[in-house]
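Work Package 4 report. The design task specified in the project plan requires that, given a folded chain encoded as structure tokens, an amino acid be chosen for each position. We show below one input record used in the internal validation round.
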């Protein structure tokens, strides 16, 4: 059995730590990109939802107004 020197062990440990650090940075970058895309998607969905809500409110108002207009058009109003 051959013994390795301390410097070789230190170099191997350094390489191992460096590769783990690189993977960690890569994961952090990927996750931050995913978070950014999710945030943008959430904003778009919220905007679309609020636009749909405004449209529904306008339609509801329009229908209520038409119903009110029809109900007050009776010829024998007192």
């Amino acid at each position: 059995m051959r013994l390795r020197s301390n410097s070789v062990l230190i170099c191997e440990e350094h390489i191992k730590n460096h590769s783990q650090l690189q993977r960690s940075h890569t994961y952090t970058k990927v996750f931050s990109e995913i978070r950014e895309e999710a945030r943008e998607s959430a904003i778009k969905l919220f905007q679309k939802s609020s636009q749909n809500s405004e449209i529904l409110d306008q339609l509801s108002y329009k229908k209520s107004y038409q119903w009110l207009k029809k109900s007050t058009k009776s010829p024998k109003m007192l």
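The chain has a mean pLDDT of 81. Validation will be extended to a larger panel in the next phase.
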